[in-house]
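Most newcomers find our protein records easier to grasp once they have seen one. To make this concrete, we reproduce a full record directly below:

===
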Amino acid sequence: MARTAVLGFPRIGADRELKAALEDYWAGRSSTAALEATAREIRAANLWAGTQAGIDVLPVGDFSLYDHVLDVAEMVTLIAERHGGAEASGLSAHFLACRGGDGVTPLEMTKWFDTNYHYLVPELTPGQSFALRADKWVAHLREAGELGVDARPVVLGPVSLLRLSKGVAEPLSLLPALTAVYAELLAALAAAGAREVQIDEPCLVLDRTDAELDAFADAFAMLCAAAPLEVCLATYFEGLDERALQRIARLPLAELHVDLVRAPSQLDAVLDALPAGARLSAGVIDGRNVWATDLDLALDRLDRIVARIGSDRVTIAPSCSLLHVPYSVAREQGIPQEVREWLAFGQEKLEELALLARAVDASHADRDELLADARRRISARRVSRLTNDAAVRGRVAALREEDYARPVPIDERLAAQHERLALPELPTTTIGSFPQTAEIRDARRRWRCGELDAEAYDAFLREQIEQVVREQEQLGLDVLVHGEPERNDMVEYFGEQLNGFVFSQ
């Protein structure tokens, strides 16, 4: 039978407990022990949710207080000297890298591939050395064991860690030394009771040179032999090209995970290259999307896999970590019931995984029964008045080629703008929004609760706007902004002015 797996869980807490705990800790209102207790509760809740849903393989090591890339960098002692270097320890040093302080700049933050998540960029130095600090992974593995969960440790792989770092021209020149430390990690996990390990290498889906792919293959050949562990190589966000698959085919992997949501066209090539006897972890549920899965489409892909390698070698999984989605639709009382039925957050995606596992080996008649409700919800969304606006569709259908071209050439527009605005050669302005002060947040809260009427709230906002405009004039800025006091979040604010949007709580 096929098994089910999760690559990673949301980490903020169902009620954003981690956010509150971190803010209390940073403000000095709570202790290290209190923060760590909250973190343990979130990890336990995630494992409990997966267990209750019947998921076969649950992750540990995916949880982070701030950023999983930073955690892995610290695991191999890749720590900037200004943050304490090899001598750094404890949460104070950890959060110094995250947030800076006392004249110390934090690590740069940038987008995690094309998601809305941002990670902290590790900093390499020429001749960088590495040393293992496996405490977090071993502790979390044992913690899961105490809860009765035989969990699979998850770690960002050495190739991706180096490629996502900065500071040296040829980061993969450091791969042999780094791989040796990862080998120590795998040995430590095996000694702590792990039976398999998930090593994430999302950078393999990007354009890689042959030399980089050869370096990857050498590193993973070493890792597969480093400890008595089954190694799952996990890729996501795009597909693997032929050159990457050629290297993977020669590796003694126990499992390969691929993203069949973002890159379904890779499936045949992946099946052709799958190492002998290895399982294929099929990412058929979108780990980045809040919509319910079209389970018939997912089963079509699973059926193709089962026909080639049998269900015993299939793992059914989300396309990537569930880090990118909220916890559960059941908590969203402010979303209309019609729309709620179309959604699948983290908890619902676990239920979809379990349902697919039952359906993949079922007869067609049994499938019809298993999928009846899911099919109803998918069909309802397709024909709903909320997703079919005749006026909008008519306007789109009426678009002409000339509608995509500006009627006035750019040179003429620029000349008119320069004449109208009369700005200096290098005008000054702010990014746009001014800080959301405690006073502004309190006024918005009181307005939403009905404690402040619309007229008073409008007057308050106008006062705030006048203050920031006067401040900009006094500073001599050229292009003024109004400060956006009315917006808790720019995207949410504009979405609230439009049809076709709903907002989670």
